[in-house]
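Sequence in, structure out. Go.
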Amino acid sequence: MHEPLLVVDGVSKSFGDIVALHDIDLTIHQGEVIGLVGSNGAGKTTLLRLLAGVYVPTNGRVRLANGEEVHTARNVIGVVPENTGLYSRLTAWENIRYHARIHGIEDDVAWKRTLYFSKFLGMDDALQRHTKGFSRGMRQKTALLRALAHAPRVLLLDEPTAGLDVTSARTVRDLVSQLGQEGGTVIYSTHQLSEAHRVCNRIIIIHNGEVRADGTPEELLELTGAEHLEDAYVSLTMDVAREDEVNEKPLGRWSKAWRSMFTPSTPKEVNEDE
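Output:
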C-alpha cells in the first residue's frame, strides 16, 4: 500500500437541519483510482467539495497526511466539476494558463504539461481556439487539462463523462487509466457502476450520506455474496434513496423574499460557460 495522501476523519456535513453526509471515515492513498459510486442525491458531490476544500466539515476533519487541513492546501488538488465553468471568450490555453498562474505555475511549465496531455486527448490543435464554440466533449477535455496543469497530487472528477458521446467518454476513461498507471491518484464520481468497474481499482459506495461499502470490486462481491457488482450495489442500497443532494445552505426568510422579488417565474436559460 502506498502512502496516504488524504484522510477523512469522522466527517459529517449539515445544511441547517439537513444532514448531507454522516460520519465518513476514508483514507486515500497515492496511486489509487477510486470510483465514488452512488445515485443522484447520495452525497457524492458534497463529499468531493469537502475533499477539494470548498466546504468545511460540520464535524470531523479532512486533512493531508501531514495533518494540514485540506482547505488551506488546495494547490495539491485538481478538480473537474460537472459544469466546466470555462471562460467562453478565452481560448482553451488561456483558460488553462489563467488557472495555472493562480497556482503559481510558470507559463512554460504549464504549457509543457498541457501539451503532453492534450496530445493524448486529441486537443493539441484546439488549444488556441476560443471555447465558446466547443462541444461538450471539448469543454470537458479542456477542464481536464486545466485541472492537470499545476500537477496536483489528487485529481477529483465529478461525473466526468456525463453527457459525452461514446468516443469522448472513452478518451476520458483512458486518460484516467493512464494517470493511475503513472502513479496518479484519482477520485472518480459517477452513478454508473460499470464505468467505475472499468477504470477504478477501488470502489466506494455512498448512499443517503453514508459509506455503505469500500473495497476492490472483488471485495465487494465477497462482502455481499453476489456474482455481479450490480447485484452487490443493490443489496447495499435497498433503502429508499433521497430525492436530491443538498449543495447549498437553506435560504433564510429575508433571502427568500429578496430572491422572489428579483427572480422571474420562468428563468432565462443560460449556457454553462457564459
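Check: The beta strands are 4-15, 18-29, 33-37, 59-64, 77-80, 154-158, 185-190, 202-207, 210-215. The chain has nine helices and nine strands.
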